[in-house]
Amino acid sequence: MRDITVRIGIAAACCTAVLLWIALPGGGDAVFVLPVALVPMLFLSRERSVRRRFFFGLLTGFLHFLLQLYWIVIVLGRYGGLPWFFSYPALLLLSLYMALYVAVFVLLAGNIYGRWGGARALWVLPLLWVGLDWLRAILFSGFPWMDLGYALWQTPLLLQTADLFGHYFITFVVVLCNTLVFFLLSTKGKGKILSVVMVSLFFLAVVFYGHYRKTQLESLMFLEDSAVVGIVQGNI
After folding, report:
1. What is the biggest distance separating any 2 CA atoms in the chain, rounded to whole angstroms?
2. How far is residue 127's CA from residue 29's CA, in Å, rounded to a whole number?
3. 52 vs 6: CA distance, rounded Å
4. Integer distance in angstroms from the first to the last C-alpha of the chain?
5. Dihedral (C-alpha) 161, 136, 20, 233: value to the nearest 10 degrees?
6. Alpha helices in the chain (DSSP H)
7. 121: how many CB neighbours lie within 10 A of its CB?
8. Are the C-beta atoms of 184 and 42 separated by less than 8 Å?
9. Quick one: average pLDDT of 158-176?
10. Residue 204 contacts by C-beta under 8 Å, 6 or more apart in sequence?
């Protein structure tokens, strides 16, 4: 029974890592996968063993960042002149460090979900994810890469709220969608309808503001003079 639990946990970790790679820029850039990409990992937060919960979260994060940060080897090797026996371990260590934040999320998510129930955790878990993203961006000089909100770069309607709350709010919206799906799949009994209504109203508010702001900016841009701009990246 224990071996089966571990195998299922490893499979769920791999599933989330692959889904995130498919959804994010640098991978498949298929943003429609993003609203459910974290769901397998969220199920891992229900693991009763603290050690296994931490391990599953660490594995999820490690595989996720390993797939996303492959270019570190190219940068260090081709442009930095480092041999492979330095560049590859650097990728592994960086991915492992980044994975610690995911491990902490899964570890704390289990406590939050178990103590507060699904309806409250539905909103608290996105706040926890965003808080860890913010912490990752400032600790040890910061590494603010691979935030989930960046994946919506081709959806202007959902991006407009960033002018009010920054890209972390976009990440909050993404994680909230995942926690809603997880809540609906994992919870029995009442509370589901109210949660769906509240999250739907929240999303409608985001879309409404996005439409209003996008229309406003397009009108202003139509009245302004235009110029052709060229951008060239400097040689590393």
Report:
1. 68
2. 24
3. 8
4. 53
5. 80
6. 2-23, 34-37, 39-44, 50-68, 71-74, 84-116, 118-138, 156-159, 162-165, 167-186, 192-223
7. 24
8. no
9. 94
10. none
Chain Cα centroid distance, residue 230: 32
Residue 51 has pLDDT above 80, yes or no: yes
Query: Per-residue pLDDT tens for 73-114?
Result: 998 988 888 888 899 999 999 999 999 999 999 999 999 987
Name residue, tokens 């595989």. 63
Contact of 65 with 94, CB cutoff 8 Å: yes
pLDDT at 2 over 80: no
Taking the C-alpha atoms of residue 175 and residue 126, their distance in angstroms, rounded to an integer, is 5
- Predicted pLDDT of residue 236: 60
Amino acid (1-letter code) at residue 18: V
